[in-house]
Design goal:
Two copies of one chain form a homodimer. Chain A is built from ten helices and 18 strands. By secondary structure, chain A is an alpha/beta fold. Chain A folds into two domains: 210 residues, Rossmann fold (3-Layer(aba) Sandwich); 201 residues, Dihydrodipicolinate Reductase, domain 2. Chains A, B: One of its GO terms (biological process) is galactose metabolic process.
Chain lengths: 480, 480
């Protein structure tokens, strides 16, 4: 099955008919994407504009992107802590105009408390999705079936000609097949999807990716990843919702802690995996409940989610061995950071360290040591870069933004990249109105197709554990 | 098949008939060993005498152990660098009395150059092995079939009533079946075997084992190992012998770098593995040859040994997840030590670091942080130890012997433990004349049976790689 790209809606500032808009399936779509996002010289990776803030700092001529939110509450939650402050900082580009929540009262009070002056509280998902005042729907829900809610939204939004973007939170509570259906439906409806694999927007991750793409560590020949997810240990707060500890739900050590981390690793190295083996371990089937002060209350609760993941495999590019251990649960490690990614190459090394084991929300430090390349093996360096004789010299870098708020910052940068695409702020020639996936491009943002490939990898993690097999996963990176 | 313990020769200072000396197979033999080596109060692990130097500092009444050496040359080699200086430092306990080498001239010149006044050069393996002037045979040979030479030695030594010890270098060039035969033959002939898994004698390894055994890190719940073996990279010295890079021989990244490391890990944790998965990777099938100055000479040579091993699994005790990545080849890692062993527990952590990736020969640093246990969960603490209220307190330790020469030191301590056993310097009651294996005891030394279990684990590493399977290895720790 190819990727249908008919019936797509017009993008604000882009040429909608650039010769690639035919139904030729994903491979062409990808190649085209590379051309359009990479080959423009001023905006190629050597110019590093992807690392700069958006050029749109005032309200664009065409008006801001109107955001309808599913799952924003003024009381608590992920959306309040991350999406809301990110959108606030991009108020010229985005405006929250609609809310849908399980109760309309929750939406009304959130509009009042957050002073969302132009927002409407919708009583039903049908009225919400069909409102012409919504350009982008953001879904940030916990413990709800993603397939059902997204299919409802897609159904009811058919008559909303303005809807162009669907932004979904990772991790997903839906199956591979369901996600394939969602991908096909959004493409058919001309809706550009976004998945919050926001680690790809971390400045540290982009710098690591850049160093590697420009040949600063030579050929990668070995990678070690060790993470420590703070949940899933011997104790848990009494007030933590039970669904977080139930394997039947989509949020656990494998899908989130490992999922974000391995997505970022693939993104940095520009490679998927060829073979993998995994052991999913639950050594703590019961947890002690503790109160707000961390004192045991003398009760236990079952835990069916894993507290450890062992994962190893080789990358498709270069057959690079990757060793990965994700430990759940306190106590934290005393002599290592809670996140350590070591990437070794023939000419240098990169180390990424984070205080928390969650690469997508923790501030990092990047250490690089290696040999400045003569010529980038992948991309030509910028014309502006001096070609004097400092190539071949040993060079070092410690990259750290001391006050970087990664929790909000990475989500902020993800919204920024949506605005850059929507308003074509980087003036990329022949920018399409829709693209299938980001894959490993510097520009753009991850889509539900990127999420689909990650879902398949994670499915194979469980399958490897269940079968006790090393699996060839080189064929999972195809649509469908 | 049980472990025959009939026909054993008398130990110098020990009671040869302590009620356990019947043919009851290895399990009884192990239990007995525990009793004899552990329960004696003055010498129990809480007294930590295993960490002290031998009490025998003058020539014992019964004379030193007469050592016959296969593979000692004054020109070069492992035996010259390690065994020889170790024996020199234990001249009251050991004396080299016989040499056998491929040519008798080599033995004669070695006796002359090393001033081995009481040593004889033997022209044939038959005359060497049958000489009554040999109590212990040490085999330190490269690129020779261990099975053939050991079986010859055992055959020709039948009439040498004095021969009590056979000391063999790890790694072994022989199959599992051949090693089983050797184990059976040595037991039948009453010969105590020793294998040079000398990492077990490293003071850092023993301290880590002690901290864990006494409950200082609580229950182990996660382990990460990353090592970097300096060989097997993109270049190799022109003068390096080709057999080192030929998978058909017994010495490579898996057998030596990984073998020593995983043996030490099992020893520290007192646990074998239950499930394992491995990927054995050879990404560098050809190496550039370099001269003595490291300059490329424009020639390449084939390499069939691996340059990377990915290994993960769970320990039999506690289902502890273990992640292990052994990288071969320069360049070395810039931001980690070449050996890092991280052991995490419910009450603390231990980190072992080494400058070189070879745990058995590199000096280490041990870092410990955790909570002082109330009572050791495994062993009762010494009566002399104060039982005041400092249990439950957070405690830290950095253990490092700045001038420790691990290359010689660990082999020296291995010889020392042989002398301690032979002369019963620790005055252990009912010390047997022979024991099957050290397993995870503090006292004693590793034997060919310990080596057999390690050979089986390594065989399963290759098997896991070849089959693409996670393997249950819990049944391999049985004899035969």
């Amino acid at each position: 099955m190819g990727l249908p790209t008919n019936n797509i809606k017009s993008n604000n500032n882009s040429n909608n008919n650039n010769g690639s808009n035919n139904n030729t399936g994903i491979s062409k779509n990808r190649i085209w994407k590379r051309r359009s996002l990479i080959t423009n010289k001023r905006n190629s990776i050597s110019g590093m504009t992807y690392n700069l803030r958006s050029k749109v700092s005032t309200i664009p001529n065409t008006g801001s992107i109107k955001v309808g939110f599913v799952g924003l509450s003024f009381k608590k939650g992920w959306a309040l802590k991350t999406h809301y402050p990110a959108i606030l900082q991009l108020s010229s580009q985005f405006e929250i105009t609609a809310l849908y929540n399980p109760t309309i009262d929750s939406s009304i009070s959130t509009i009042r408390e957050l002073k969302l002056r132009n927002a409407t509280a919708f009583p039903t998902i049908e009225s919400f999705a069909s409102s012409s005042g919504v350009d982008m729907i953001v879904i940030s829900i916990e413990n709800m079936n993603h397939y059902e809610i997204i299919m409802s939204l897609l159904k009811y939004s058919q008559n909303n000609a303005n809807l162009k973007y669907l932004f979904v939170e990772w991790g997903l509570k839906c199956s591979e097949k369901e996600l394939e259906t969602i991908c096909a439906e959004t493409t058919k409806n001309g809706i550009q999807t976004i998945i919050s694999l926001q680690g790809r927007k971390s400045p540290y991750i982009l710098r690591a990716k850049e160093l590697i793409a420009q040949g600063y560590i030579g050929e990668i020949n070995s990678i070690e990843v060790a993470g420590n997810g703070g949940w899933y240990g011997y104790e848990r707060p009494q007030k933590s919702p039970a669904y977080m500890f139930d394997i039947k739900n989509g949020t656990n050590l494998v899908t989130t802690t490992f999922g974000h981390t391995i997505d970022v690793l693939q993104y940095i190295t520009s490679s998927y995996f060829s073979t993998i083996n995994a052991m999913v371990i639950n050594n703590i089937p019961e947890q002690e409940l503790v109160d707000d002060f961390g004192n045991k209350i003398g009760q236990k609760a079952p835990k069916t989610v894993p507290d450890h993941l062992l994962f190893q495999g080789t990358l498709l590019n270069g057959n690079v061995p990757v060793s990965c251990s994700i430990k759940g649960g306190k106590p934290i490690k005393k002599f290592t950071k809670n996140l350590v990614i070591d990437i070794h190459g023939t000419k240098g090394d990169i180390k990424l360290e984070g205080d928390a084991g969650f690469v997508e929300i923790t501030n990092l430090v990047l250490y690089y040591g290696g040999i400045k390349p003569n010529n980038s093996p992948i991309y030509k360096t910028s014309d502006r870069e001096p070609t004097t004789g400092d190539s071949g010299k040993e060079t070092m870098e410690v990259y750290h933004l001391r006050n970087y708020n990664a929790l909000v910052g990475n989500i902020f940068r993800l919204y920024q990249s949506i605005a850059d695409f929507h308003f074509n702020t980087k003036q990329i020639e022949n920018l399409p109105s829709q693209f299938a996936m980001q894959e490993f491009e510097f520009e753009g943002f991850p889509t539900l197709m990127d999420a689909l490939f990650l879902v398949r990898l994670i499915d194979n993690v469980y399958k490897s554990n269940d079968l006790g097999s090393t699996l060839d996963v080189s064929k999972i990176y195809q649509y469908p």
